[in-house]
UniProtKB/TrEMBL annotation:
Membrane-spanning residues: 39-60
Compositionally biased region (Basic and acidic residues): 86-99
Keyword Transmembrane (UniProt): yes
Compositional bias ranges of the Low complexity kind: 71-85
Organism lineage: Bacteria, Bacillati, Actinomycetota, Actinomycetes, Propionibacteriales
Protein known as: Uncharacterized protein
Keywords of this entry: Membrane, Transmembrane, Transmembrane helix
Superkingdom: Bacteria
Amino acid sequence: MTDLKDLLEEAAGPEPAVTDSDLSAALTRGRRALRRRRLTGIATGAVATALVIGVGWSVLPTGTTNGAPEPAAQATKTPKPVAKTTPKDYRPVPQDTRKPPVIPADPVPLAANSTPFAGVAFTCDLIPQGWAVRRFDQQIVLYDPKLANPSQYRLATYTLAIWSEDMVDEGHGLTPAKYGDPWSKLPKVRVGKQQVVTTGVPGSPYGRQQVFLRQGNTKHLVTVTNQAWNLAWDMNTLLKFAGSCHSKK
């Protein structure tokens, strides 16, 4: 009976011949594998050591100095943005889009005023011809009573207002409320016997301006504000009218 070993050898065939170069290559591969295992072992040990050290630091108090724990840092809270709210009853002021009256081709002439203004401390000796007088508190308003449907026009574009006010002295001299400089430093013109400060330039065709008339050397002013487009006045006419206004004696 054929031996089992012989049968296996016949099935596998003869063993290949092994040369010296094959042995050298195998020896080199073996050395490389051994070197890789050693390096892997060192790296694994280092990682394990780092993990142990990290765990150790994690259980120590936060922030130590010379072994003494410092107070734990407080978490910074981000403030929540505060939303700006608008009051429920807030209503924006609508823009007045109405137009002013039409400027007439000829200016309204001046006429003598024989009736002093009632209820106020001043009056004017001239008045726009045909215009009416109305008093609001301590202010006189002149207007054209024949102006049709004045509500169709932008507010105050068809009136001329006059009132009295006092200058104040805060250590720099008597100063009108409208200005930051004292009266003595403001550019002035003379209308009749009165000193006048005006927002317009004498001789200008644009007479819708404001005029301040000082009453002698006192602190009292008579202020004239012309916003009436339908007067069609230039500055010279406005100054002439303003010069007729004065405190009552």
